């Protein structure tokens, strides 16, 4: 699995996961429970992971959905 998005923004993460799901790409959120370790202040970002073979397509789908800035790409 590879990371396609890293963020502290739960809404952005949820939207990105939904967009990928609609495109038929399974995405898994890593580090969801790490907020327990940082006192729930949200300092540790969560990572959105996809299968190795889906990385390029996932980045393209997310970029086309208006998330290019979140991916570190030009819009």
Word description of this protein:
The protein has 75 residues and is of the alpha+beta class. 35% of the residues lie in helices and 20% in strands. It is built from two helices and three strands; from the N terminus they run E-H-E-E-H. It has helices at 10-22, 55-67, and strands spanning 2-7, 27-30, 46-50.
Strand and helix layout:
Blueprint: E1 2-7, H1 10-22, E2 27-30, E3 46-50, H2 55-67
Antiparallel strand pairs: 1-3, 2-3
Tags for this model:
2 helices, three-stranded antiparallel sheet, alpha+beta, 35% helix, 75 residues
In short:
The chain has 75 residues and is α+β, with helices and mostly antiparallel strands. It has helices at 10-22, 55-67; strands at 2-7, 27-30, 46-50.
The neighbouring-strand order within the major sheet is 1-3-2
Shape: globular
Number of separate strands: 3
Query: What is the rounded distance between the termini?
Result: 25 Å
